[in-house]
Design a protein that fits this description.
Strand content: 5-15%
InterPro entries: HDOD, RNase_Y/CdgJ
Number of domains: 2
Pfam family, one: HDOD
Structural class: alpha/beta
Organism: Azospira restricta
Protein name: HDOD domain-containing protein
Number of helices: 20
Order of helices and strands: EEHEHEHEHEHHEHEHHHHHHHHHHHHH
Largest sheet: 8 strands, mixed, barrel
CATH class of the largest domain: Mainly Alpha
Distance between the termini: 42 Å
Radius of gyration: 22 Å
CATH architecture of the largest domain: Orthogonal Bundle
């Protein structure tokens, strides 16, 4: 099986994308393999720090320093394995990098190792959230934060674990929990669900513009959020969209339909102005699936495979958004059979791609890699699709 490379957002306590973690699988011990993929990361690296695995032996290699340059000096964050803390040569090399202002991370295995680390050698500490919660004395985390370390939590698999990490001053966390319903959160009122499902149904059926416009006339905040969403990425500040009819004219019906699919995640029925964190995840899934399906042979069951793949990716989080089983969501939506099969049963080509994408989001790289390899997706093509999808989704901002 090919070695695939996965990129996943690291979130701030406000759940905003703040950095990315690069995870080759199997874990790369080949500096050349990372260097070969580095140029593909450039668009994302210009905007976000990227934390990537680093073997201690690389630190004295000129190729490693060239890799830092490609990813952006001061923004690329090499992350050493926990065992490097006992390697005097690695410790010295890290101290020299830190002296030049280069961020350096290290994995933390236990409290004994944590207490011995010095900010002069490392500034980012990567900890497994569950292990830290269950196995580390709270005073050690407090001391690490006060010493100036940036704490990074991996394996943040529940909303409650995310809240714990934020309370313990972790600056960055992984985002597996975003795709899951928070059982502590009150279920939205049925009226809200009905409005969302009505809008979705009209969009899926490519309904007459006047029917869709009527929904927006009834919900001024819905219209307001559509304009903010479209203006954030679609056409840029040179051509601001100020009305629903103008949005249709400038964007065209197909592009508008995409923004309407995203709009359902935009917290339009709440008081806050911050974007629902599901918005960017849904956008990234949709765009990545659209790019990946283009690598596959044409499917006669799909009139427009790219559009169908985008819709599957976007709609894959509706059960989380609506607090409803996917089968109930699909019962209310007149989607084409291949789309319904992909969302409900993970069937067909779209279902396999969705399983790969969602497995990668959850950190189940073995499942993701097996599917991608079975579909013949080249590792570099997969990286390109991820970077393009995350870069596009990262620009969607309603703040």
């Amino acid at each position: 099986m090919q070695a695939y490379h996965y990129f996943r957002p690291l979130l701030s306590p406000a759940k905003a994308w703040t950095a990315f973690r690069w995870q080759p699988v199997p874990v790369a011990d080949d500096l050349a393999a990372l260097t070969a993929m580095a140029s593909a990361c450039e668009p994302l690296a210009r905007t976000f720090p990227i934390l990537f695995p680093c073997a201690p032996g690389w630190l004295a290699d000129g190729a490693f320093h060239r890799l830092l340059g490609v990813l952006g000096d001061g923004r690329a964050i090499p992350c050493l394995p926990a065992a490097a803390a006992a390697d005097p040569a690695a410790e010295t090399a890290c101290r020299q990098l830190r002296g030049k202002g280069q961020p350096v991370a290290i994995e933390v295995a236990d409290g004994d190792a944590l207490r011995k680390l010095q900010p002069a050698s490392y500034d980012h500490l990567l900890l497994d959230a569950r292990s830290a919660r269950n196995g580390l004395p709270l005073i050690d985390l407090i001391n690490a934060h006060q010493a100036g370390f940036t704490l990074v939590a991996a394996g943040t698999v529940t909303h409650e674990l995310f809240d714990w990490a934020c309370a313990k001053r972790f600056a960055l966390t992984s985002g597996e929990f975003i795709a899951l319903t928070d059982p502590r959160h009150p279920v939205d009122a049925d009226t809200t669900r009905l409005k969302l499902l009505k809008l979705l149904s009209l969009v899926v059926q490519d309904a007459d513009t006047r029917e869709i416009e009527e929904i927006f006339r009834q919900e001024p905040k819905l219209s307001y959020n559509l304009l903010r969403l479209v203006n954030s990425v679609a056409v840029g500040p040179r051509t601001p969209i100020t009305g629903f009819n103008q949005a249709i004219t400038v964007l065209g019906r197909r592009q508008l339909q995409r923004w309407l699919q995203l709009l359902i995640y935009a917290n339009q029925f709440t008081q806050g102005n911050l974007p629902n964190p599901l918005l960017q995840l849904a956008a990234a899934r949709g765009r990545q699936m659209e790019l990946l399906v283009a690598t596959q042979p044409a499917d006669p069951a799909l009139d427009d495979a790219g559009e169908a793949a985008f819709m599957v990716g976007i709609f894959s989080l509706l059960d989380t958004l609506l607090h409803m089983p996917m089968r109930e969501v699909l019962a209310s939506l007149p989607v084409a059979p291949p789309i319904a099969d992909a969302l409900g049963e993970r069937g067909g080509l779209l279902g396999r791609l969705l399983t790969a994408v969602t497995a990668a989001d959850a950190g189940d790289f073995e499942v993701a890699g097996a599917i991608l390899d079975g579909l013949g997706v080249p590792a570099r093509t997969h990286v390109d699709a991820q970077i393009a999808a995350y870069f596009w989704a990262s620009r969607i901002n309603l703040e």
